[in-house]
Amino acid sequence: MTPLRILHVMRAPVGGLFRHVQDLALEQAARGHAVGIVADRTTGGEKAETALAALSAKLAYGVSRIPMSRHAGPNDLAAVRYVATHARQLQADVVHGHGAKGGAYARLGGGKALRVYTPHGGSLHFSRTNPVGLAYLTLESFLLRKTDLALFESAYAKAAFERKIGTPAGLVQVVHNGVRPGEFEPVALEADPADVLFVGELRRLKGVDVLIEALSLLQSQGKKLRAVIVGDGPDAESFLSLAKARGLADTVSFPGAMPARNAFAKGRLLLVPSRAESLPYIVLEAIAAGMPVVATKVGGIPEIFGDDAVMLIPPGNANALADAIARQAGGSKDGTARLRARVSELFTVSAMADGVIDAYRRAISRQNI
User: Fold this and answer.
1) Where are the domains of the chain?
2) Contact 119, 100 (CB under 8 A)
3) pLDDT, tens digit, for every residue of 180-200?
4) How far apart are CA 268 and CA 256, in angstroms?
5) Could you give the CA distance from residue 241 to residue 152 in angstroms, rounded to a whole number?
6) Pairing between strand 196-199 and 114-118?
7) Which CATH fold topology does 5-178+348-367 show?
8) Average pLDDT over every residue of 134-147
9) 55 phi/psi in degrees, rounded to 5
10) Do 160 and 124 meet the contact criterion of CB atoms below 8 Å apart?
11) How crowded is the C-beta side of 348, counted as CA atoms within 13 Å?
12) Residue 69: which residues within 8 A CB-CB, separation 6 or more?
């Protein structure tokens, strides 16, 4: 088939969205497609600068960085004009926007190219009850008619988007996130690993407070477990204080942020006690590495677990989390091998790229009818 000319547009080169774009762009380039990226130049810091420079060297159209404001502002018009001009100069077949801002720029500036949108949560985090949220969701509703292809990383995200915003005019497809081949290599544990591990942003949405309460319940039952809580975030100090208040200062450590596979070496059991998620990479990464996982039944996590979703626990429930930790810490490895086999079949970067490229071609065919 004829290679495609693909331009990805995103704002902040950080987090799961950035990882998704990196993996997808590199896999598309490896398959012979001409790929470029447009990203904000004011966010991400030195880490993003280094990653984008390495990425640019591997892409036919490289990486362009322009100012992109987090909220609506004067930079938006300039960004749309830049994307439109860049896409036209590249004669792009596909302009694929990621996140709320990237999706808006891609669809408003995509011109005659296939205009693709992957929300990655994006505007789903906004509410019509405040001016900023109302502006974004109104724009999202307007952009439905300019969406030739909507790609969602989970069936949950698709349903939430359609319920909150509406159904895009073009093709709609679910393509799950995927992990890299090297992430299926087992991680060797440190000499004295903790009983349980958390890896993620330290904010209430991620349920770290529920984790601390569950550990406190277990301690009151005579089960004193050690935990490592890896990450950083706006509620870090609050969680530190809660751990101290619950008498866990000597059993719960907060080493800060680090790469997931480095963190996996520090604990025997990964906890994902989130109150809300889409399709979290951390769950896929841990399962791929053969690590037992206790997670909540939220967002797209049941799609990862499949038939083993019965093992998932309700969010915000410290008692249920404590019971699940006790089972797993006692030696149970319920479903770990089955889950790893499922992820290796369905949730790989290769499968993700197959799904995305196939959706591009089907949407382009629909345009040409």
Assistant:
1) 5-178+348-367, 182-346
2) yes
3) 999 999 999 999 999 999 999
4) 18
5) 38
6) unpaired
7) Rossmann fold (3.40.50)
8) 86
9) -65, -45
10) yes
11) 13
12) 75, 76
Adjacency order of strands within the sheet including 227-230? 252-256, 227-230, 196-199, 270-272, 293-295
What is the b/e burial string over 252-288, where b = at least 16 CB atoms within 10 angstroms of the residue's CB? bebeeeeebbebbbbbbbbbbbbbbbbbbbbbbbbbb
- Residue written as tokens 């693709």? 116
Residues forming beta bridges with residue 110, ordered by sequence position: none
Round to whole Å and give the CA distance between 318 and 275: 12
What secondary structure letter does DSSP report for 3?
P
Q: With contact defined as beta carbons under 8 Å apart, do 156 and 178 qualify?
A: no
Q: Tell me which CATH code domain 182-346 carries.
A: 3.40.50.2000
What is the number of H-type helices and E-type strands within the chain? 14, 12
Q: How many CA atoms lie within 13 A of 259 on its CB side?
A: 6
CA distance 138 to 105: 15
| Residues forming a β-bridge with 197 | 228, 270
> What is the pLDDT averaged over residues 337-358?
97
What does DSSP assign to residue 296? B
Query: For residue 304, what are the contacts with CB-CB under 8 A and spacing of at least 6?
Result: 279, 283, 284, 287, 339, 342, 343, 347
Q: How far apart are CA 115 and CA 113, in angstroms?
A: 6
Asked if 94 and 147 count as a contact pair (C-beta separation under 8 A), the reply is no
pLDDT of 329 > 90? The answer is no
pTM over 0.85: yes
pLDDT band at 333 (very low <50, low <70, confident <90, very high): low
Residue with tokens 């706006």: 234
Q: What pLDDT shows up at residue 125?
A: 67
Using only C-alpha atoms, what is the Rg of the chain?
21
Other C-beta atoms closer than 10 Å to the C-beta of 296 total 25
Name the helix (H) or strand (E) containing 162.
helix 155-164
